[in-house]
Amino acid sequence: MLKKLPSRIIAYDAGLLLPVLFLVGIGIVMVYSASSALAQKMVGMEYFFLKKQALFALVGIVVLVVCRYFPYRWYRSLTYPLLILAVVFLAAIHFTAFGYSAGGSTRWLRFGNIAFQPAEFARLALIIYLAYSMDRKREQLKNFSIGFLPHMLVLAVFIVLIFMQPDFGSVVIFSVITWIMLFVGGIRVTHLLTTLILILPAAYLCMINAAYRLKRLLSFIDPWQYPNEEGYQIIHSMMAFGTGGLWGTGVGKGIQKLFYLPEPHTDFIFSVIGEELGLIGVGVILALYALILWRGVLIACRADDLFGAYMATGLTTALILQVCVNMGVALGLLPTKGLTLPFLSYGGTSLLVNMASIGILMNIGTSTHTEQKESDQGARYATA
């Protein structure tokens, strides 16, 4: 008789894995639909972005499986190497010849034919650092000089390097993730609110002192005032949703992706989904993200140590926050930001890091159950 496979080999969180796989599959289809005309014009091959996204998805699944079985507690010893590596990558964008510019920003490192966005990796490194540091300082988190200031200084390093790209959207994401994780960890609310009060004027000055940011803000308030400039993306995004109606025009039958809506396969893929899949398709996408949020919160609440709980909180926050910002921009609820939609938008770095995050969440979620089950089995064998 064949022996039963150990639970650690077959244990996957279906409530987390299935929504992710559905989103990745939908993403591959919608990337092709959104990019085929653009790819034909750019490289003469309509399947160009489809092939690359499918390859990213396959590699991403491998990364997810590896992270699923990589014990999350081992990240403790990797915290500072990952943090230093993230800073080196971000600095290399500005101070080496490997920095790569596109769309008016320098956000990528290119090594031959391989390009990746260090900010995505840096976000994961920051979450691991915050989880490790907050766990280690659990008894002194309310102390300003120990529990608050060091974390703010590390965040400041990331903010400066990312702001130089410039990437104001990622600056906001990094700041909110840090704020939420510190709040969950028990940092004094007065420290957090004081920092927020000090940061808001600085953010306002950065917004109004850059002409393109000011135009984005004004176009967010009234996009029709700048229909051919900063308001162009928002207007065509809203037109896509309006055209989609309840059931959508059908996959591949959208109009706005045909050189009307900029970046239809990356930043504004949600608009293409709204046009081609309609309100029903948008509702399905929202339900899948809601399942991921639900499972992430449960994993954070049930983790058997603070390090796992903090890391699960940060990973879940990062994913859902990026979803909210991307969808908010596409629906005209937030000023335009260059952020992709997790698991759906075209892009290798974002997809791989997000798949790694899901794998880490699974490892955190199953470690307690597995250890308890093995302990119970050991006790029964000892008794027998």
What would you say about this model in short?
With 384 residues, the chain is mostly helical. The protein has 13 helices and three strands.
Q: What this model shows, in words?
A:
The longest helix is centred in the C-terminal third of the chain and has 36 residues, at 348-383. The chain folds into two domains: 33-69 and 234-360, no CATH class; 74-209, no CATH class. It is built from 13 helices and three strands. Helix 4 (75-95) runs parallel beside helix 6 and helix 11 packs parallel to helix 13. It has helices at residues 7-10, 14-43, 48-69, 75-95, 118-136, 144-163, 168-185, 189-209, 211-221, 232-244, 269-302, 306-330, 348-383; strands spanning 99-102, 105-111, 114-116. 71% of the residues lie in helices and 4% in strands. The two termini are 22 Å apart. The protein is mainly alpha-helical and 384 residues long. Strand 1 (99-102) and strand 2 (105-111) form a beta hairpin. The protein has a three-stranded antiparallel beta sheet with strand order 1-2-3.
